[in-house]
Amino acid sequence: MSAPRRIEVVELRGAGVLLDCSGPHVLRVLGARRVVALPPTVAPHAGGPAAEEVHRGVLDGLLFETNRTFLLPGTGPALAALVRWVSARPGWELLLVGHADRSGEDEYNRQLSHERAEAVSSFLRDDAAAWLTWYDAARGSKRWGTREDQHMLSALRDEAGAFYAGAVDGAAGAGTRAAVERFQRWSNAARGTALVVDGVAGPATRAALIAAYLAQDGTTLPAGVAVRAHGCGEWHPAVETADGQAEAANRRVEVFAFAGAVAPPPVDPCPPGGCAEHARWLARVVGAIDLRGPGDLTTLRVRLDIDPSLASSQDDAFRLFSSDGAWEQRRTIVDDLVPGDAWVDLAFEGLDPARSYSLEVDPGADGPPYLVFEDVPRAELARTPGVRAPRTEPLWYRLDGGA
């Protein structure tokens, strides 16, 4: 029987992870002990996304405090999921659209929402200098201070645990000073800074603190990714409220990912009542960016490009099994084929975070079974950044959150 033209092991979905499984690259990225190359008869895939393709995700939950622009601890997994998604799609552009609730004046909220989108953009690009400007007096009521120091000190750790474990109250008391001093010692030793160890959060210490906070694992976009920030204020709420009402769900940042240039481009500033462009961006969306963290990813989704005229004769079988021998699932092309489609998606569901897995392909009459990867921890699959690099073996997959 004819082999599939391309095997695209698409997604432990959720974070949208795409992994290049060609030879030594897989050994580095996946940490697999052994990878058996795909048959050389499988042709590489040269395709790409449609130029009009747009995907959307939402960074919501407790991102920001009321009237503040500081990106709170706990957002790292969602940002890491976004980075993995974008890393799999070189050439895509991002538009970050900030939103505010209705607890302030219209123009104040518009500025605040734009600043929030800029804060996320700076986080994704490790732009510590941009974040440091928020400590300037010119920022007025939104100026950062001890409260933001405490947030970062509570998120960062050394071998003894978090630097700060007290209440985030903005008071520069003895506990905060001790945490700053401990951070200064750690930063000098672990990150090569030359901070004065005095427990005072001065400009140099704050610059180092921000740099360490932005350097959280997996939250930095690849170099060259174009990012634009835009603020829509209170005009496009997720939850309708009365004017003047605070609502955490409306303090959010939408992420629009464009396969080409951002279109239509945002009009700054967003006009009173909201911008017409927002509705046009939404109308173009063809897929979601799942920003759940790695712990939510439980489905290995495998995509195969096939010739529809030969689909019914494809006898390839796929087996995903745990290394301890206690779990396995089998899928075939015929099982999941949709007549007329030029691809088939195989979903292996219910992966256990505590187990390691191997994927075996039996090409039937085309040759003996072979392993795609072997003994890879599920957690390692979920952590692996997306890669869409030139490759000799066109096998891709993605860990996914399920349906």
Defining key terms:
403 residues, disordered N terminus, 5-stranded mixed beta sheet, 10 helices, 4-stranded antiparallel beta sheet, single chain, alpha+beta
Overview of this protein structure:
The chain has 403 residues and is an alpha+beta fold. It is built from ten helices and 15 strands. It has helices at 23-29, 76-87, 106-124, 128-132, 146-155, 174-190, 203-214, 276-284, 333-336, 378-383, and strands at 6-8, 54-59, 93-98, 157-158, 161-162, 226-231, 253-258, 285-288, 299-305, 317-322, 328-332, 343-348, 356-362, 370-377, 398-400. Helix 5 (146-155) crosses helix 7 (203-214). The longest helix has 19 residues, at 106-124.
Give a nutshell description of this structure.
The protein has 403 residues and is α+β, with helices and mostly antiparallel strands. 25% of the residues lie in helices and 19% in strands.
- Derived from helix and strand composition plus strand pairing, the structural class reads alpha+beta
Return the string of H and E elements: EHEHEHHHEEHHEEHEEEEHEEEHE
DSSP strand tally: 15
Helicity range? 25-40%
Largest sheet: 5 strands, mixed
Question: Kindly state the mean pLDDT as a whole number?
Answer: 78
